[in-house]
Design a protein that fits this description.
Layout: H1 2-11, E1 23-24, H2 33-39, E2 48-53, E3 58-63, E4 65-72, E5 75-81, E6 88-93, H3 99-118, E7 122-135, E8 138-149, E9 156-167, E10 170-177, H4 182-198, E11 204-214, E12 217-228, E13 234-245, E14 251-262, E15 268-277, E16 280-290, E17 293-300, E18 303-308, H5 318-329, E19 335-340, E20 351-357, E21 363-367, E22 372-377, E23 383-389, E24 394-404
Antiparallel strand pairs: 1-7, 2-3, 4-5, 5-6, 6-10, 7-8, 8-9, 9-10, 11-12, 11-24, 12-13, 13-14, 14-15, 15-16, 16-17, 17-18, 19-20, 20-21, 21-22, 22-23, 23-24
């Protein structure tokens, strides 16, 4: 559940809608008038066009005039006329690093193309905006870059807008390289992702996605999916994508993916996780229970690790966390204590965790070695909002979408 994702993010530090609040890093009020006039421009998206991608089961209308410009094995490249001089560009990939890393990579590729097209070297780039949100049940991230090409009187300015989402084992990344058209680009992107979200099959009994913010800045999202397998156990899929500003010019990128299995009572069966940081595979882990011991194997920074946990008993799964909240909420007890495997904290040991019920029946506190997390829950015993306060840094979680109930049907 949420606890593993909190640890990773700290260490790395419905329908046609987009629930998000963008954060702009640069106040353009003092910029020249021509720049502000250009930034106010928007296009027209009056006529829809059809997106047909049989390989992924996609056939749906999107906004703007869409054209398939190129295709290769597992990759499709589209342009969309959104009423601007420069078309919007969208890629669909079936092999990719993750939302954060892939979007940043495509954005950098766009800057290189701008250099070539204008025959001017990149002379500056700045973080302009970050955003997160959902389209239907699909989480997305956005990253805008203000850039300069050339020097002196020959210097020109541009705005590279990027948005990305992952749906049904494919990744969609869209760019638009022109000042202004921010809302038009977003509307066209939302419609593009809606086509994939509508075709997304699922047998999950529970899905949820959360927005993560540091000091109010949207820096990423996490997703969880819970399904019942043929043996009656719970299959858990979760992921985290983060873009955290390092300075005014760059962001650190993290994408983490995990799969695990849980017994119906919340006991972990096995699990695996890998993390990509700044375009490089940072770690891969797997945990299995063999001969009454928990065995861990994997790599961190390209170095092999293998360990036997000292703790050989019950480990609680992410699914088990929801059961703990429900049990504590409905009992006279005020605390539950258990062990979890959190590889981002320490892959070679079990982590002791305590869950406290506060005076409010809807507010709980999760205590781990690295932090405490105060959160409110909904009627499904799932966190809807939460805070980790470190004084100068406040990290918050907000539920963007929740489908189903985190309990086996």
């Amino acid at each position: 559940m949420f606890s593993k994702k909190i640890a990773l993010s700290l260490l790395g530090v419905l329908g046609l809608s987009a629930n998000a609040h963008a954060h702009d890093f640069i106040d353009v009020a003092g910029f020249p008038g021509w720049f502000n006039d250009a930034m106010k421009r928007e296009g027209a998206l009056d006529e829809p066009s059809e997106l047909s991608l049989p390989e992924l089961g996609i056939k749906s209308d999107v906004l703007g005039e869409l054209s398939l410009a190129d295709t290769d094995t597992g990759t499709w490249y589209y342009t969309i006329d959104i009423g601007s001089d420069v078309p919007m560009e969208c890629w669909v990939f079936t092999e990719y690093d993750g939302t954060a890393n892939s979007m940043h990579g495509i954005s950098q590729m766009g800057l290189e193309s701008a250099e070539t097209l204008n025959k001017k070297a990149l002379s500056g780039q700045f973080n302009f905006a970050l955003d997160v949100g959902v389209v239907g049940t699909t989480a997305y991230a956005a990253y805008d870059t203000l850039y300069h090409l050339g020097e002196g009187d020959q210097k020109v300015a541009g705005l590279m807008k990027a948005m990305a989402a992952e749906t049904n084992d494919s990744l969609q990344v869209c760019l638009h390289n022109e000042l202004g058209y921010r809302e038009t680009f977003k509307q066209a992107f939302v419609a593009f992702i809606q086509a994939f979200d509508n075709a997304k099959p699922t047998n999950a009994f529970y899905q949820t996605a959360y927005a993560w913010r540091i000091n109010g800045i949207p820096v990423g999202f996490s997703r969880e999916s819970y399904a019942k397998d043929e043996d009656g156990d719970v299959v858990i899929e979760s992921s985290l994508s983060m873009l955290v500003p390092v300075d005014a010019n760059s962001v650190a990128r993290t994408d983490s993916f995990s799969n695990s299995w849980s017994m119906p009572d919340g006991a972990l069966i096995n699990g695996q996780q890998y993390t990509i940081e700044n375009g490089v595979m940072a770690s891969t882990y797997r945990i299995d229970y063999k001969d009454e011991k928990w065995e861990v194997a994997g790599k961190i920074q390209n170095k092999d690790i293998a360990a036997t946990l000292e703790h050989s008993k019950w480990l609680q799964s992410e699914y088990g966390n929801y059961l703990s909240i429900e049990n504590l909420r409905n009992s006279d007890a005020t605390r539950d204590t258990f062990f979890m495997w959190s590889p981002d904290a320490d892959p070679t040991s079990a982590l002791e965790v305590s869950l406290d019920k506060t005076d409010s029946s809807n507010t709980f506190q999760l205590n781990m070695s690295l932090f405490t997390f105060l959160f409110e829950i909904d009627d499904n015993n799932a966190p809807v909002s939460g805070t980790i306060d470190y004084g100068v840094m406040k990290m918050t979680l907000d539920q963007m979408v929740s489908i189903g109930t985190p309990k086996l049907p």
